[in-house]
Amino acid sequence: MANIEHLTKLKQGAINWIDWLDHSHQEEIDLINADLRGINLLGVYLVKANLTGADLTSAKLSKANLTGANLQSAELIDANLIETNLTGANLQSAYLIDADLYQANLIGADLRAVMGRGANLSSANLIGTSIRQGQLRQANFMQAKLSRANLSETALTQASFDGADLSGANFFEAELQSASFYQANLYRVKAIATHFSHSYFLASNLIEANMAGCDLRWANLSYTNLQSADLQKAKLRGTNLTKANLTGANLVGANLRGANLTKANLSQANLTGADIEDTIFNKAILVGTIMPDGSLHN
Fold first, then answer.
1. H or E element: which one contains 22?
2. Rounded to whole angstroms, how far apart are CA atoms 218 and 196?
3. How many other C-beta atoms are found inside a 10 Å radius of the C-beta of residue 33?
4. Beta carbons of 118 and 98 less than 8 angstroms apart
5. Which of 164, 209, 236, 273 has its CA 20 to 30 Å from the CA of residue 191?
6. Residue 26: its pLDDT value, please?
7. Under 8 Å between Cβ of 126 and 144
8. What is the rounded CA–CA span in Å between residue 58 and residue 11?
9. Which residues touch 4 (CB under 8 Å, ≥6 apart)?
10. Residue 165 φ then ψ, to 5°
11. Which residue from 173, 138, 139, 168 is spatially nearest to 154, judged by alpha carbons?
């Protein structure tokens, strides 16, 4: 249970709270399982506070300092966390359903197994953050910084990553059906056995992406840059690859049945063993391409 004195002082507001902290010299802030529903704590100082299991539903925490705070299993449903500093915070198994984390700083935060359907993480800083096994369906990551983030085994169906920086991110076996990556930076992304069916990648950067064995059926990859990408054994049935750059791409054993490669650049790509039944190669560039039967196209 929360320390009664800490809870009482906090409920008096952010200004009174900081004054009390300055005079009481509290080493640890104990707010375990505290009921803070709807509380207004704009700009509050809660560095390293223990908020394990706390109920912060609809709380106003915009611009608060929660650096290193423990929010494990905390309820942040519909909470306002705009521009909040959550650097190094523990948010394992926290509930972020419909929470607003616009421009929040989450560098080094632990978001493993977080629950956040409909959460707004647009323009948030999530560089190097672990969101492994998180449930973030329909979340908004537009313009977010997610380079080197661990998103393996996450449920991110219908999430939006438009304009986001995902360079070097790990999407191993993640569920991203019907997600949007318009103009996103996915340079050297690791997406082995990831599910991207019906997703939208128009004009995204997938240079040197590792997408071996991933499911891209019926996805829109038109105008994407897949130069030197690893797509071996990828499922690309019905995929739109119009004007995509697949120069030097590895498509060994890929299923390209019914895919649209109109005006795509497949120079020096490797299609050995690929299934190209009903594939459209209209005006595609095939200079030095290794065809499914192992022959070199001139």
1. helix 14-24
2. 9
3. 14
4. yes
5. 273
6. 75
7. yes
8. 15
9. none
10. -95, 105
11. 173
- Distance CA(279)–CA(96), nearest Å, equals 43
The CA distance from 143 to 122, in Å, is 6
Average pLDDT per 10 consecutive residues for the chain, totaling 298 residues? 89 89 84 96 95 98 98 98 98 98 97 97 97 98 98 98 98 98 98 98 98 98 98 98 98 98 98 97 96 89
Strand partners, 120: 100, 140
Q: DSSP string spanning 196-264?
A: -TT-B-TT-B-TT-B-TT-B-TT-B-TT-B-TT-B-TT-B-TT-B-TT-B-TT-B-TT-B-TT-B-TT-
Q: For residues 41 and 63, is the Cβ–Cβ distance under 8 A? A: no
Backbone angles phi, psi at 14, to 5 degrees: -65, -35
pLDDT, position 1: 78
Please report the pLDDT score of residue 37 as a whole number: 96
Instruction: Name the DSSP letter for residue 31.
Output: -
Residue among 60, 105, 63, 103 at smallest CA distance from 78: 60
Whether the CB-CB separation of 192 and 210 falls below 8 Å is answered with yes
Give the chain's domains with CATH numbers: 1-140 (2.160.20.80), 153-298 (2.160.20.80)
Q: Which residues, listed in sequence order, are joined to residue 180 by a DSSP beta bridge?
A: 160, 200
Residues making up the chain, counted from first to last: 298
d(CA 36, CA 45): 15
Residue 178 CA to residue 77 CA, distance in Å, equals 24
Alpha carbons 46 and 285: distance in angstroms, whole number? 58
Residue 154 neighbours by CB distance under 10 Å: 29
pTM for this entry: 0.95
Q: Tokens 């509290």 map to which residue?
A: 26
